[in-house]
Amino acid sequence: MAPFLLNHIALSVKNVDASIEFYQKVFQFEEIENTASNSKTRWLSLGEGRQLHLIPRPNLEVITNKAVHFALSTSNLEEFVKHLVHLEIEYSDWTNTIKKDYVRKDGVEQFYFQDLDGYWIEVNNAIQ
């Protein structure tokens, strides 16, 4: 069987404009053209051909927990933490210790925060 690669992550959001602003402010993702439809769904580039699709659902109620998340890696976790602090975005480790970085058994540091709709995002330094 041929290998599979991640193509995109799709999230339903209450306010697509506010979500675009959030993801651009936090991650500096570039908005790209929605080539699939003429809907109000907006796309952001995650790099390397991967995308984040934000689908407007004004009546959305997100019920999730930290175990349901997507993870992004960076080679400079410390700089990103400073960025989050500047943006006044609270983050925590896996056990909800505020502003504490968790180090996994394999040595990877990670922490979590939520977007405007309550989706959990992990950021770690597992760059390969």
Automatic annotation (TrEMBL):
Domain VOC: 5-126
Pfam families recorded: Glyoxalase
Family annotation (InterPro entries): Fosfomycin_Res_Enzymes, Glyas_Bleomycin-R_OHBP_Dase, Glyas_Fos-R_dOase_dom, VOC_core
PROSITE patterns listed in its UniProt record: VOC
Signal peptide limits: none
Name of the protein in its database record: Glyoxalase
Organism: Polaribacter porphyrae
